[in-house]
Design brief:
Pfam families: ADH_N, ADH_zinc_N. This is Glutathione-dependent formaldehyde dehydrogenase. GO terms for molecular function: oxidoreductase activity; zinc ion binding. The chain is of the alpha/beta class. The protein has helices at about 40-45, 95, 110-120, 150, 160-165, 170-180, 195-205, 220-230, 240-250, 270-280, 290-300, 320-325, 335-350, 365-375, and strands spanning about 1-5, 10-15, 30-35, 55, 60-70, 80-85, 85-90, 125, 140-145, 155, 190, 210-215, 230-235, 255-260, 305, 330, 360-365, 385. Helix content is about 30%, strand content about 20%. Helix 6 (about 170-180) packs across helix 7 (about 195-205) and helix 6 (about 170-180) packs across helix 13 (about 335-350). The longest helix has 13 residues, at about 335-350.
Length: about 400
């Protein structure tokens, strides 16, 4: 089959590789219909997350059709059109039983690579470094899905492939971030980053009952799309101070909750950007955590800061601000299985149309070009749908 592979820092290629096979009686083989670029991939493409090996197939946000099942698969069948959450759950361990699917104790066969750093390993994820399981990713014609009954969700007929695609990762990640904010009627939620996850987090905050959702970014096409989702915006490239803008927009109190949907390669302005960029380039730190710092400073006292961005070792973390303002800090990799039924309902009812995130639709053979456009924000690119 054909697949998009990682071959070194900023070295990608589409290659012919072996087809996946059933390895476990609970496995499913999926013919990938759609897969998409994701900002999380840029962290290992740029060399800030270790653990990729030459020839690894990457990609973790996808949907498709089941073409083969293991003998113990009971709930899904060949021919089903399904979407698959990016983190792999087993539905049997303590964490899955408590809806903490990304913390699954079963699905990471390389737990020993994570445990020294994390204390306890996370669950596995498709196409996202060997410490996260070393699974082949979704930027391919076929992909093996472990525990098919747990991780394959048949798509209701009224939902298009393009809408279902983002229910794999961007939508549940954003929705989880908003869910962490314990939104009440009248609340204002501010979201840093207007990529796919940030837009879905802000829209989800409104769906959960927030009165206002404000998105902070500097890319014109992202800010424009935020408006299409009914969101307010701040262009931090034009604003003198994001914190002062938010203070003014909230009557001096600040947002009730703040969501960081940016992560370790955040962009800022002034001396902070110069400092973070220099330290990151010299590998003296892994993160440019400007969005996280701003979110902590901007949040009202007693509020919630929800962190969806991917981080490694963060310099200058303002823990004193968290303590003295009485903030609640919540974070996780997404527990997509927990939210899937609810997200299907939102899309079917017309409350949410994640297909709006697609700005480019390309064959997988143009995957290298897709990531170049996506990474460098060329041609107004927000997300590229890849068709194997």
């Amino acid at each position: 089959m054909r697949a998009l592979c990682w071959n070194g820092v900023n070295k990608l290629s589409v290659e012919t590789v072996d087809d996946p096979e059933i390895l476990n009686p609970h496995d499913v083989i999926l013919k990938v219909t759609l897969t998409t670029t994701c900002g999380s991939d840029l962290h290992f493409i740029d060399g800030y997350l270790p653990g990729m090996r030459e020839g690894d197939i990457f990609g973790h946000e996808f949907m498709g059709e089941i073409v083969e099942t293991g003998r113990e698969v009971r709930d899904v069948k060949v021919g089903d059109r399904v979407v698959v959450p990016s983190f792999i759950g087993c539905d049997r361990c303590w964490y899955c039983e408590h809806d903490l699917y990304s913390c699954c104790d079963t699905t990471n066969p390389n737990a020993e690579l994570q445990q020294p750093l994390l204390g306890y390993p996370s669950g596995g994820i498709y196409g996202y470094t060997h410490p996260f399981g070393g699974y082949a990713g979704s930027h391919a014609q076929f992909v093996r899905v472990p525990f098919g009954d747990t991780n394959c969700f048949p798509i209701p007929g009224d939902i298009t492939d393009e809408q279902a695609l983002f229910l794999s990762d961007a939508v549940p990640t954003g929705f989880m971030g908003a869910d962490f904010c314990d939104v009440n009627g009248g609340d204002t939620v501010a979201v840093w980053g207007a990529g796919g996850v940030g837009l879905m987090a802000a829209k989800s905050a409104l769906l959960l009952g927030a009165e206002r959702a404000i998105v902070i970014d500097r890319i014109p096409e992202r800010l424009s799309l935020a408006g299409e989702f009914g969101l307010e915006t701040i262009d931090y490239g034009a604003a003198d101070s994001v914190q002062e803008s938010l203070r003014e927009m909230t009557g001096g109190r600040g947002p009730d909750a703040c969501i960081d949907a940016v992560g370790m390669e955040g962009h800022s302005t002034g001396l902070q950007q110069v400092y973070d960029r220099a330290k990151q380039l010299l590998r003296l730190e892994t993160d440019r955590a400007s969005a996280l710092r701003q979110a902590i400073l901007a949040c009202r006292k007693g509020g919630v800061v929800s962190v969806l961005g991917v981080y490694g070792l963060t310099d200058k973390f303002p823990m004193g601000v968290v303590t003295n303002k009485g903030l609640t800090l919540r974070s996780a990799q997404q527990h997509g299985q927990r939210y899937m039924a609810r997200l299907f309902d939102y899309v079917e009812q017309g409350d949410l149309d994640p297909a709006k995130l697609i700005t480019h639709d390309l064959p997988l053979e143009q995957g290298v070009r897709a990531y170049d456009m996506f990474k460098n924000k060329q041609d107004n690119c927000i997300r590229v749908a890849l068709r194997p």
